[in-house]
Amino acid sequence: MSNQWQPHAAELAEGLSLIELSDGLGHLDLGDSEDVMVMGVCDDSRHAMPGYAMLCLPRSEGKATQFAESAKEQGAIAIISVGVSVDTDLPHLHLESIAEAGLLLRRMFKTEQASTHFYGITGTDGKTSVAWMLREALARYQSAPIWSSGTLGWMRSSNNICDIGNTTPSLLTMHAMLNAACQEGVHAVVSEISSHGIAQGRIAGLNFKTAIWTNMGHDHLQDHGGYEPYLATKAGFISDCAAHGGSVVANADHADIRERAPESTNWYGHGLDRDDVNLGWEQELPGLLRLSCAGEEVVIEDIPIGDFHAENVACVALTLMVSMGIELQALPELLTGITAPPGRMQDVAAGYGQVFIDYAHTPEALERCLKAARKLVRNRLIVVFGCGGERDREKRPQMGGIAAEFADAVWITSDNPRGELPAVIASEIEAGMAQPYRVELHLQLDREQAIAEAVEVLAEGDILVIAGKGHEAYMEVCGRRMPWSDAEVAERYLHRKHPGSGFDGERLCA
């Protein structure tokens, strides 16, 4: 699969009768046709091809007829609508629910009996890191390729990644990925499951054999109508997995998760001497993790920096024990030296150890990131961060307060302002900082200039954390995504500050 693959259409291995495909599902209107052979399926009319069926999903309401006509012009021979009205003279299968669409796609791709182990990871933070680490650990254990999907894309290996547009891609893409995994004999697929993906039914028809709930915090609340609906959305995914016989692994240190997770949940939590968890964890030193289960202990060495990564590794450890039956004593071999994904407490200038970029863009993630950095700092902790525009506004003052509490110097700057004024976002961040300010505060809306200024003042023993964007390779302003890399900018100014050091300043964020 090339990195140019577009997740909007999929060709079927062989033509399938629309009558047979629709058996027992929805209402089929063939019009003047006796039957048609479906050769492929698309969910974007621009990717329709001769012989394809066009899938009109609920979000196309009001434009479904227009999309159907466009697909017909491209050669589509049938329309499959899901909960939306479509006026078309093509053979038309109408499905009432997204659940029916999921069943139809399983039938189309012939994956009803798929043996691929689907892991689903939900939570406000930690999804990408847990997915990365679990894929790496399973690949070590299986000595075979393991796939993952999420914020970083559809990953067949760390060197073979293609963009899928969203953390949890479209329903069609999810089913096409399962089909591809089955065709290539991939044992497991690890998928990040976002709240949007759950709410919009992008995982309908997929049977997750293991569901993981990492944590709960504030993000995307504006899209769900508040925290409670957001929490309920994630809880619904976890409960559905358990109801269908899947195993559940969850973080015991979040009261809301404790309250909403099913009784059969397997728990991990901070602390070694606990009787309310299946696996306890403790980090005595950076890079070292101690795990405890049923009175036994093991030590995992050389893990990524940060308590939050220690917690992520503990989550992976329990998942391996639950899903694969791996014994506690076998975990050090599988987890020692495990890596973290790009942009998660990433040392952008190896050898300096002074500048880290992190994807932290929620209050909870920023606090954990700065606490991790505080354990490493010998002098001042400096942070450069902002908040995204047209997103949860409640978190802005919270993140300002956290930065003021844990850092010594703060640069408030821009971070994907989208259609909002960066100055307004910055003022809402600053509003959460108690006055008189304990920290040295700077307002610099030009993100490159903010990073440059922070790098310039770095002294021996200081640590700089550039938070919010992590691996992201763009800055989104007024509907446009412009090329951007926190790592590249930081490296450029470090190179200017330390010329002739042997650091070439050319390495980009992977």
TrEMBL record:
**One Pfam family for this entry, by name?**
Mur_ligase_M
Top-level taxon: Bacteria
Where in the cell does this protein reside? Cytoplasm
Q: What is its EC number?
A: 6.3.2.13
The protein's annotated pathway: Cell wall biogenesis; peptidoglycan biosynthesis
Primary location: cytoplasm
GO annotation (BP), single: cell division
What sequence ranges are listed for the domain Mur ligase C-terminal?
343-470
Q: Where is the Mur ligase central domain?
A: 121-316
Which SUPFAM superfamilies does the entry mention? MurD-like peptide ligases, catalytic domain, MurD-like peptide ligases, peptide-binding domain, MurE/MurF N-terminal domain
Alphabetical list of InterPro entries matching this protein: Mur-like_cat_sf, Mur_ligase_C, Mur_ligase_C_dom_sf, Mur_ligase_cen, MurE/MurF_N, UDP-N-AcMur-Glu-dNH2Pim_ligase
Keywords assigned by UniProt, alphabetized: Cell cycle, Cell division, Cell shape, Cell wall biogenesis/degradation, Ligase, Peptidoglycan synthesis
This protein's record includes keyword Membrane:
no
Q: Does the keyword 4Fe-4S apply?
A: no
A GO-annotated cellular component: cytoplasm
> Any idea which GO molecular function terms this record carries?
ATP binding; UDP-N-acetylmuramoylalanyl-D-glutamate-2,6-diaminopimelate ligase activity
Tell me which family the UniProt entry assigns to this protein. Belongs to the MurCDEF family. MurE subfamily.
Q: What is this protein called?
A: UDP-N-acetylmuramoylalanyl-D-glutamate--2, 6-diaminopimelate ligase
